[in-house]
Amino acid sequence: MSLFEEHLTLGQWLSEEERLALYKYLLIIHREKYNFDYEKLVLEKSIITSFANGEILYSMQANEVSYKSRRIGSENYTSEIRTLTLNSSSFLNRRKLHRFFAQAELDVLRNFPIPSSKENREGGYSTNFYPFYDLEYYSNGRGKIIGLIKKFQAKDDELLEKLLAS
Amino acid sequence: MPLTIPKPLIPILIKPKVPGWLFVAALVAQYAILATTGSTAPECQVKLENIHYSSSVKRNLGKDAIKLNAVTSCTTNQVYSKLQAKIHVLENEKVSVIYQSVMNRSNAEIKNPKEAIFLDFWTKCEKGTIRSYLGSVDGEVVLANGKTLPVSGSTKDFLPVLCDFRAK
Q1: Residue B55 within a domain
Q2: What is the ipTM of this complex?
Q3: Residues of B at the A interface, defined by Cβ within 8 angstroms
Q4: CA angle at residue B50 from B47 to B52, to 5 degrees?
Q5: Model pTM?
């Protein structure tokens, strides 16, 4: 089992630093997949993808994209978890959606990891309230300027380096 | 000259205009409507377990850690709750924050939509040490009716916790 596959089993046991490292890793390794998903979503307005042990339903309405998810094999989706407002630039939208896709996959991994010996609870769906692509994440809701400063001060977790080297 | 009321008038004056059974029925109906629609103002509170040595973190990650579990509980269904947690330690009569979570969101439980559970607030501790901890949380609940209610709370007092698997 690779280091990355090992982390796909951790679910709720991933630390905050590990989640952020995995988010950055997904942005790199899933670039092609996200490009494909972006094109398909723009064309079809709704797509279903899967990650770890979960399915993600993305929907696009007007200038807003949202996602819901469910455990693979389960009937019911969660309520809407996150929404993203798009703008008129398709170049920027593509970038924004790449981050949105990576965040959604991280959320799914936290709640629906690949089954293993690790205990993972059933029930409510837990996420970070502020997504990694929002500067508010770095300031924990104390504003984007503080968030920007904190983002520059933050160091990558060593997990990212290990994942990239593996 | 004494005032006399004609006899036939007395029963008419005393007789209630609304029949008794209708009055009782109206009371019952009002109670039933209040009970089913929950039109009283919804309330939410946060329940915190005392900070404890986490056997689940030990089992799953092999790490020694203390944990703060929280549940937001409302009188009506919620969509989700968001909470930020802190763990404070008391040492040499000084209080310091040793853990501060990011703002976490937890959807209402599928089996009981009046509650949302938070089990992700934990931090490592030094095996074998005893320290006094207090936990606090702060956040909001978004109800199914669209309203948002603030919630906050803390564990009762600083309680000593042994950082060891046998502590439970």
Answers
A1: yes
A2: 0.88
A3: 56-57, 59-61, 79-80, 82, 84, 100-111, 116-120
A4: 135
A5: 0.82
